[in-house]
Design brief:
9-stranded mixed sheet, mainly beta, 4-stranded antiparallel sheet, Immunoglobulin-like, binds zinc ion, 452 residues, 30 strands, rod-shaped
Length: 452
């Protein structure tokens, strides 16, 4: 009992699934072998069904204007049992077992009546589709379809023309030459009004891109690298329309220098600046050592004395020992320049401090006018001793009457003949002359004998 229930439920599920998918996917459609018809023409309307599983039977009702068309017959295609009731315009198609249908199922042959009105007429086909199930046949929804058939008026005066402007071909779609179509008979005309059998379509134009573009390979310029505006591609056909152009590197946009390490008198400092476009772009530079700030000591002017050098007013830096002539340390000078050499003594007149006397030296003194401690003293020669001299009256001793001793040693006489005594020269001269004459006579005789 239980087993039977399970089987039954399973079948129910399959049926409901089949019905659901039919409703979702099944579609009836029809087409005509020719939809531009003249009176007397035959036309076949083909009916197709797609996506229909487990079809057990179908019923097709045709609504066809009987004053325009004569129904010649209806024919099934899939070789199943069919019944076509011309008077009711009803076709019944039954399958021996549930069948999946996906294609043509039925054709209907029509003939345009000789007295048919001109114009457009619809042939409407309304289906009723049933699927099989355990419980019997179930009708499922399926929309109807129709086809419009035009009966052409051969004597049309083409008073109902509509012009269609030419359209350029694009890279993906064909355009066409200008044409006109008659709304009454469907006749086509070219731009000159000449009848044409079909619209003249133009070839695809691979160079006509109509605006759907996209930019690829676009790249922003950085401080140091060039960018690119990007290549323009047609979104429709994918062709490259224009290559991008180079965007020059922007260069850094550095801000102000910021001191990161202040310089001192002995060490260099450092400054950095950062690019506004990229904080990682940093430039660093060295700041020279700070200027020396003099620590100036004022030295007042000091006059030179006769024995001590003086100095001009000056300032000296206790750190660098440089000398300056001004309190701001701007006029550097040499250390030697401030020295004022000791002055020469400026002597006054000689003043006799002790009179010279006969036989006794005197003394006189002069004093420096700059410094009275500076004195110079010199002797005054003793005066010659004289009897008349008043000064000698007191001092004369036993020496005074004596004449100065003048002694001439013996040898001095020989050395200095001019000072010799005249009387002695007179005595000796004749003796010398006689001796010399005698010697000459002897020599004369000796020489004469030798010659003989
Ligand atoms: Zn016409
Ligand atoms: Zn394109
Ligand atoms: Zn930068
Ligand atoms: Zn200094
Ligand atoms: Zn002096």
């Amino acid at each position: 009992m239980k087993r039977i229930m399970v089987v039954f439920l399973s079948i129910m599920m399959i049926v409901s699934l089949a019905a659901a998918s039919f409703a979702d996917g099944a579609a009836l459609s029809c087409s005509a072998t020719n939809d531009q018809l003249n009176r007397g023409d035959m036309v076949t309307v083909k009916v197709s069904l797609s996506g229909a599983p487990d079809v057990k039977s179908m019923q097709l009702t045709f609504d066809i204007p009987t004053d325009v068309f004569t129904v010649d017959g209806g024919w099934n295609i899939s070789g199943t049992i069919a019944d076509f009731n011309k008077s009711k315009n009803l076709a019944v198609i039954a399958f021996e077992s549930p069948t999946n249908i996906n294609g043509s199922i039925f054709t209907l042959d029509l003939t345009v009546k000789d007295d048919a009105a001109y114009g457009d007429f619809d042939a409407v086909i309304t289906p009723t589709v049933k699927v099989s199930s355990e419980a019997g046949e179930t009708e499922v929804p399926c929309a109807g379809t129709s086809v419009t058939l035009t009966i052409i008026d051969p004597s049309c005066r083409h008073n109902n023309k509509t012009s269609v402007a030419a359209k350029d071909s694009t890279c993906i779609a064909q355009g066409w030459d200008a044409y006109a179509v008659c709304g009454s008979c469907g006749q086509l005309f070219d731009a000159d009004g000449k009848e044409i059998s079909e619209i003249h379509y133009r070839a695809i134009n691979p160079d006509n891109h109509t605006g759907n573009t996209e930019i690829r390979n676009q790249k922003d310029a950085t401080c140091t690298e060039n960018g690119n505006s990007g290549d323009t591609y047609c979104k429709d056909c994918g062709a490259l329309i224009s290559a991008g152009s180079k965007i020059k590197a922007l260069g850094h946009d550095f801000g102000a220098w910021i001191t990161t390490t202040a310089p001192t008198e002995t060490t260099e400092g450092e400054q950095t600046r950062t690019c506004s476009r990229n904080w990682q772009h940093v430039e660093t530079r060295t700041v020279p050592k700070a200027d020396h700030v003099h620590d100036l000591n004022h030295i007042a002017a000091n006059k030179a004395t006769c024995d001590q050098p003086g100095n001009t007013e000056y300032w000296v830096c206790s750190t660098c020992n440089r000398y300056f002539s001004d309190a701001h340390g701007s006029n550097g000078i040499n250390a030697n320049d401030v020295i004022i050499a000791p002055a020469e003594h400026q002597w006054g007149e000689w003043v006799v401090t002790k009179e010279a006397k006969a036989g006794e030296k005197g003394e006189e003194t002069r004093t420096c006018i700059y410094d009275s401690n500076h004195k110079e003293t010199r002797e005054i020669p003793a005066l010659p001793e004289t009897e008349n001299t008043d000064a000698q009256t007191e001092e004369p001793s036993t020496e005074t009457p004596e004449l100065p001793e003048i002694t001439v040693p013996e040898n001095e006489i020989i050395e200095n003949p001019e000072t010799a005594n005249d009387s002695e020269t007179v005595i000796w001269l004749p003796i010398v002359i006689v001796a010399l004459l005698g010697a000459a006579a002897v020599a004369f005789l000796v020489i004469k004998r030798k010659k003989a």
